[in-house]
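Milestone 3.1: sequence recovery, worked example.
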């Protein structure tokens, strides 16, 4: 297995094209989230959304690449949630052709290890209720449901999950 390398999204036209390809490879997620039509994902909208995310205090937008440089995933991380103080995974998206190949598990492990090294005791995320595959994935990694509420931006029903890191 080649190593996975995480690096900040630089917003070059080539990277945005790769990220649009990542979203396009995940039509089920696009339909569940309702943010983009999986048949026509506008690069300018993706770029604007990710720039807004990256410009939010404490947020990072990271690309995951395999050893050969091919993009395999996208991560949006929040260092400290304003309500609970925990770090959050805002998005972990794996290229559709790599589902069920362990890439998501490896990326989640990298994020957990990063926050563990920083001395953080837990990490959280929200899964859309209409995305049971995502809920099953996170549950299989030891994450536990702690709440149900709507997300802040789109008011979609979500399952809030937590993983203890120590």
């Amino acid at each position: 297995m080649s190593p996975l390398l995480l690096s900040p999204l630089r917003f070059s036209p080539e990277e945005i094209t790769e990220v649009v390809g990542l979203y396009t490879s995940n039509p089920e997620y696009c339909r569940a989230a309702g943010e983009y039509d999986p048949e026509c994902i506008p690069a300018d909208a993706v770029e604007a959304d990710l720039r807004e995310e990256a410009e939010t205090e404490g947020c990072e937008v990271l690309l995951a690449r395999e050893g050969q440089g091919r993009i395999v995933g996208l991560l949006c991380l929040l260092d400290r949630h304003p309500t609970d103080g925990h770090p959050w995974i805002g998005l972990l998206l794996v290229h559709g052709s790599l589902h069920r190949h362990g890439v998501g598990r490896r990326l989640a492990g990298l994020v957990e290890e990063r926050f563990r090294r920083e001395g953080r005791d837990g990490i959280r995320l929200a899964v859309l209720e209409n995305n049971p595959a995502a809920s099953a994935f996170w549950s299989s990694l030891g994450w536990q449901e702690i709440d149900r509420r709507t997300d802040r931006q789109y008011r979609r029903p979500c399952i809030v999950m937590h993983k203890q890191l120590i």
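The chain has a mean pLDDT of 95. The chain has five helices and seven strands.
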